[in-house]
Specification:
The chain is α+β, with helices and mostly antiparallel strands. The chain has one domain: 2-Layer Sandwich (Beta-Lactamase), CATH 3.30.450. It contains 6 helices and 6 strands; from the N terminus they run H-H-E-H-E-H-H-H-E-E-E-E. It has helices at residues 4-8, 14-26, 58-61, 70-76, 85-88, 94-107, and strands at residues 50-54, 64-68, 112-121, 126-138, 147-157, 164-167. It has a 6-stranded antiparallel sheet with strand order 2-1-5-4-3-6, covered by helices on one side. The longest helix is centred in the middle third of the chain and has 14 residues, at 94-107. The termini are close together.
Length: 168
């Protein structure tokens, strides 16, 4: 399992640090937490920002959203549970974010961290949506990744941020 110090090198976001401490403690010394044993009520304030990917049938269905908190759904203007990530996400950073980060949580069994901005511009709006997210592999048997649990935060800004995509 990764350490909290590795996360602190990437972010100062106290909610991401709390989330990662929860996952590290829930791992009970194993390489990955077991998603089915996680009690999200230990971190109730973070649940609206939690999302879970089901990797059990990745080759047939892709990265399927198994759960999405209300803030994650609000970002997509709908409930995204049951939708493959590959169908839902249409950003211009698809290859870097989905293929090189999120899918590699499964293939390389490593957490992924991203901090990026998306530009919204039309006749009325000229803003950036800034997104900071982390996705952590989970395993029931301690070896094979079956789920991943993530935390995402969204805010609107007048400024963009330098995009960061990291496998930890």
């Amino acid at each position: 399992m990764i350490t909290i110090d590795q996360i602190k090198e990437l972010t100062e976001n106290p909610d991401i640090l709390t989330f990662m401490e929860f996952l590290i403690n829930s791992s009970e010394g194993k390489a990955f937490p077991d998603y089915k044993k996680l009690d999200l009520m230990e971190i109730p304030a973070l649940v609206p920002n939690v999302w879970v990917i089901d990797f059990r049938e990745i080759e047939n269905r892709g990265c399927l959203f198994h759960f999405s908190g209300t803030e994650v759904d609000r970002n997509y203007n709908r409930n995204i549970t049951g939708i493959p990530l590959e169908e839902l996400y249409s950003g211009n950073d698809f290859e870097r974010l989905v293929e090189h980060c999120y899918q590699n949580v499964y293939y390389k069994k490593r957490p992924a961290y991203s901090k990026r901005s998306v530009h919204f511009h039309d006749g009325f709006i000229d803003k950036f949506r800034r997104i900071e997210a982390i996705l952590v592999p989970c395993s029931e048997d301690g070896e094979n990744v079956d789920f991943a649990i993530g935390l995402a935060f969204y805010n609107i800004s007048d400024e963009s941020t330098e995009n960061v995509y990291v496998l930890i």
